Amino acid sequence: MIRQLPSLHGFTQLVKINKGYSPDSKYVVTVGETRYLVRLSDLAHHDKRAVEFSLLQELAKQGVRTHKAVDYNLFQEANVSAMVVSFLEGSPADEIIQEHSDSEQYHLGLAAGKELRKIHQVSPPQKIHWETTQLKKFSTYLKAYQQDAYQLPQEAKLLRFIHANLPLLKQRPITLLHDDFHLGHIICKGHTYNGVIDFNGYDVGDPYHDFYNLALFSRRQSIPFCIGQIDGYFSSAPDDLFWRLYALYAAMTVFSTIVWTRHYDPRSFDDALERIHMILLDHDDFSSIKPSWYAKNLFTP
């Protein structure tokens, strides 16, 4: 199939990527001096992949540094779609962030926050009722959690906080979401930001929802990056509404993380619990909406 793709004619190297949870097959293909990323997907995902390809084109118009859309083809007999995009050179930030100084980590976060703001300027491919969608999703995860053998000691306090703040979900703006925006998907070239990858899990919804991975992942790896992402996104200090929604989404993700990890990746459950306890500590079991690690202007000259 790859030989039949016009954009990859005469390729000299093909390397399979065995990283991530996606069911797609991914390859890095070299043509001359240029590398491309190829994603082969089951045709059952064709609609979503076709929208993703068009979104990459829109993101390019917005100036977002990510994969450039090159080619999209269907192979009906093989029941496969093939998406060809440019390969983003560099290393995932989570693998090299500790090699950076605090100031470099902060400025990497600043660049990421500014990019996230651009992503949220792209028109969403569809409209949804955010409150209804989130309540249904949370209810499903909570039910699954309550049927599980593991129960969080802080469960009652956490649920009180969530239910008290659920009215904030009403009438939120709806934008395109990356929906998995964290250090593992930020690409660095040298010590500088070179782009963001993996839009295949894109979603639509409240733009503030794209910050929940700060609490779940990035905060453990780099507090300066997290502060930078927030400072880069906002032109002035975030208001109380942002922090309330940030805390709400962080609290809700505690239950979904427990359920998802127990079901799909039980071997990493201890690691998930470590990240969850860090969230609880950062928010003093959600008696505080602003995480203890955030400080405005901490890393600026």
UniProtKB/TrEMBL annotation:
A family per Pfam: APH
Domain Aminoglycoside phosphotransferase: 15-238
The name this protein goes by in its record: Aminoglycoside phosphotransferase
InterPro entries: Aminoglycoside_PTrfase, Kinase-like_dom_sf
Coiled-coil portions: none
